[in-house]
Design brief:
The chain is α+β, with helices and mostly antiparallel strands. The protein contains 2 helices and 4 strands; from the N terminus they run βββαβα. The protein has a single domain, classed as Ribosomal Protein S5, domain 2, CATH 3.30.230.10. Helices cover 35% and strands 26% of the residues.
Length: 93
């Protein structure tokens, strides 16, 4: 599945994360950018969370930008899922 349009979720407040999603050209794959104040400690975990969520929704040809201010994993997952659902027009389901 491919995202239909750009979307975002979250805020840039302390202990939160902004997730931005942009569709890419067909065949581009996944592009994941992570900016985090805890990237050295948790960057690999954040990337795994993103890839697991993308696998769950079978998403490809997507550009995801995470701007993290120390959000806990459940917050990251919730923001990511919200942005994904908005990008594929399923936010009310």
């Amino acid at each position: 599945m491919k995202p239909k349009h750009p979307s975002q979720a979250g805020t840039f407040e302390s202990s939160d994360v902004i997730v931005l999603i942009e569709p890419l050209e067909i065949g581009s794959g996944r592009k994941i950018e992570i900016e985090s104040i805890v990237k050295l400690q948790y960057g690999d975990n954040l990337k795994n969370v993103v890839n697991e969520m993308l696998d769950q929704y079978v998403l490809t040809d997507i550009h995801i930008i995470l701007k993290d201010k120390g959000a806990l994993e459940p917050v990251v997952k919730a923001r990511l899922e919200t942005a994904i659902l908005r990008s594929i027009d399923r936010q009310n389901q």
